[in-house]
Amino acid sequence: MKVDLHNHTLLCNHATGSVNEYVEAAIACGTEFFGFADHAPMHYDPSYRMRFDQIDLYESWIREASQQYHKQITVLLGYEVDYLPGYMDDLILHRSCDYLIGSVHFIDDWGFDNPEFIGRYAGMDIDDVYRRYFGLVEAMAESGKFDIVGHLDLLKVFKYLPTKDIRLLAKDALKAVKKADMTIEINVSGYRKPIAEAYPSPLLLEEIAEFQIPITFSSDAHRSDQVGLYTAEAEAFARSAGYTECAVYLGRDRKMIKF
User: CB of 162 within 8 A of CB of 145?
Assistant: First the structure.
């Protein structure tokens, strides 16, 4: 991927490898803009995110890599922030960085993409679950706090799919994303999951293109050997919907580049 903006570090407690290993893997793939967006700290679900006292360490790692490899690649500093009302922290939301990814991983107290809690799908009205999920994505966009929508349809991760047209279920969320002038990532981590496709789905990407919402690319790597996987598939997928440019952020300012 020429641009790859959503990648993690070992500080999130469920990734491995050093920052330099990720950057060197990106260089080997021909990536020009490589971004870290590790799970931002908050006082909820601490086992799957960095601590508040690790913020400076995280940022120092990324900035040191940016300087070390500046002749070969542009290394960017971001955060993936869980949209969870009452728990998002202004310390992160007002942080000096290149971009903030807003993601929904929780419906109320349910971490729906965590295999530990897959049993809670049983007996649920899956269409209602999707409505609630996209309602949170809509609210996240309306908050005006984020630059990029993380893995738009993450709820499909375990192949629990709605019976209703996904485009209808997501339409209000996409309207809010468009109004907020946000970007949506093509996140290839779905290929590594039971759903075995990128986020968003082909139908949703068609709708995103209809709204003329910008896209970007993400490995969502949690190991260095995941960096740049499925690049050809991701770029072909984007082109199938008519995209020839993707977004990159520098100091919260978006610019579009050809891919």
Answer: no
